[in-house]
Amino acid sequence: MTPLEQLAANTLTSKERESTTIFERVDALAKDFATRAAIHDKEASFPFENFTALHEAGLLSITIPRELGGQGWGLADTCRVIEGIARGDASTALVLTMHYLQHAHASRHRRWHPEVYKQLCRESIEGIALLNAARVEPELGTPARGGLPATFAKRTADGWLLTGHKQYTTGSPILRYFVVWARTIEDEPQVGSFLVKRDLPGLRIVETWDHLGMRATGSHDLILENVLVPHEYALNLSFVSTTQPIDPLTATWNSLTLSALYHGVATSARNWLVEYLHERTPSNLGEPLASLPRFQMAIGEIEALLFANRKIIYSLAKDIDNNEYEPNVGLQAQAVKYLTTKNSLRAVEIGLELTGNPGLMKKNPLERHYRDVLCSRIHTPQNDVICQSLGKSVLKVK
Q1: Which parts of the sequence belong to the Acyl-CoA oxidase/dehydrogenase middle domain (predicted)?
Q2: Which residues contact 228 (CB under 8 A, 6 or more apart)?
Q3: In the chain, where does the domain assigned CATH 2.40.110.10 lie?
Q4: Which residues, other chains included, contact 2 with Cβ-Cβ below 8 Å and sequence gap of 6+?
Q5: pTM of the prediction?
Q6: What is the topology classification, in CATH, of domain 17-128?
Q7: CA distances (Å), 236 to each of 138, 195, 201, in order?
Q8: What's the angle, vertex CA 126, arms to CA 124 and CA 130, rounded to 5?
Q9: How confident is the model over 336-370, as pLDDT tens digits?
């Protein structure tokens, strides 16, 4: 360490030293996860061992409030963790992201029953107790485009009876809790979510996930047949006529964490490509491909795309952490997602164009990174919705 670096290290606060240590753990875990990512992808098997390692490293509780035993991290550092893990295994990073988001949203709104939320936090700190939302349904599709859930909750003296069918429940093999979006059966129906523990009678997982990308996320179907949950496990119920729009900060966390994830995938693709170009020496050239101007220019284009991603993701994330954001921050975050996911996809495509057949061979990770980064188009909000919302804001129309 140089004298200047030593001086900088000595001036770090305890929180900064703690963060540095955790990010070092993230880098080590990502390298370990990468050694198994291709196998889990090929078999569509769930990486349970990765979450054991994340728990042992103290990385499952970073968005749980400090007063409840968590670390209470802000958006920028959370994005850094997600990006780092995504460099090793994108599927693991996606399940982790959904878990982080659920805790971050619950912490900010505190609409849950206090004792229920304390219990959830305690379980998530002491063991491997992940949670995620279950919203998409076969008939409705994504709820982001409007409509009411077919999943229903019936009030009884003992609690709520839930019945329904959810799809694409990311992380289902390991989740301890599902945050199930449903409507109530009442004279005036309400809509909201219900916290459902996986070991309750009537709950089952049907293994339907067989996808092009993110194959190790275990995003199977969730079936609920008269599953009884306590009254206090009903979350943020509201009448359909008074349902509030999504909180801008909730939407912002969602957009920026997903942006960081796919940026991590593209960065991993870039790293493999750089190594390949240094190692590949065609006999007719006598030098590595990295010596050719064409390949240098292409790597430069990738680097420009990744540079732009880093700047806009973390600039907005830091503004949010510092409470220096503008009223239209939700729309700004959507624009960041639109730009960065397109950049990430293009960065990996350039790698495929450069490498030809080797880039598409399963023994190399580039084709897996491409399949994973393609999934960035699926997550809410999707590109057409983002662009329409941006256009309406400029045109000042509803």
Answers
A1: 137-227
A2: 156, 158, 159, 160, 161, 162, 200, 201, 202
A3: 132-242
A4: none
A5: 0.93
A6: Butyryl-Coa Dehydrogenase, subunit A; domain 1 (1.10.540)
A7: 24, 11, 24
A8: 25
A9: 999 999 999 999 999 999 999 999 999 999 999 99
